[in-house]
Write a structure and sequence with these properties.
alpha/beta
Length: about 130
């Protein structure tokens, strides 16, 4: 399952992403990739707020994504996916994950097309 959640700021992409995660078995983790360290704390608050278990998640910034390429991930959430650069794409190409969720309010057409082609991702778009 690969989805692009292109929605305006404040729409609830984080909650929607968490609720979209397939059921996990013990030992299967979700990686959340963010552009800035401060967003990790925001995600942790959201995870707890919505009743998910923090121990099921790991976090990394786009800048240091190479540190997480060895692990096989059940799911990866790419927060603010418009921050995916060519350098990040290199590491994404070697990462193994069963499910990928790409969240953003500001993806351009090239980014959307790349995600669709590379991940066969379904675009779910909401704008007001």
């Amino acid at each position: 399952m690969n989805k692009i959640l292109e929605m305006v700021t404040g729409y609830g992409k984080s909650k929607l992403a968490l609720d979209s995660l397939p059921q996990r078995k013990q030992g299967q983790w979700t990686l959340i990739v963010v552009p800035k360290i401060v967003l990790i704390d925001n995600w942790k608050k959201e995870i707890v707020k919505w009743g998910y278990d923090l121990k099921d998640f790991d976090f990394v910034c786009y800048k240091s994504i190479e540190k997480k390429t060895i692990t096989h991930w059940h799911s990866v959430i790419y927060d603010e996916a418009h921050h995916i650069t060519e350098r990040v794409k290199m590491f994404m190409n070697v990462m193994q994950s069963d499910n990928n969720l790409f969240l953003s309010a500001t993806l351009n057409e090239n980014q959307i097309n790349w995600l669709k082609q590379t991940y066969n991702a379904e675009l779910i778009s909401k704008s007001f």
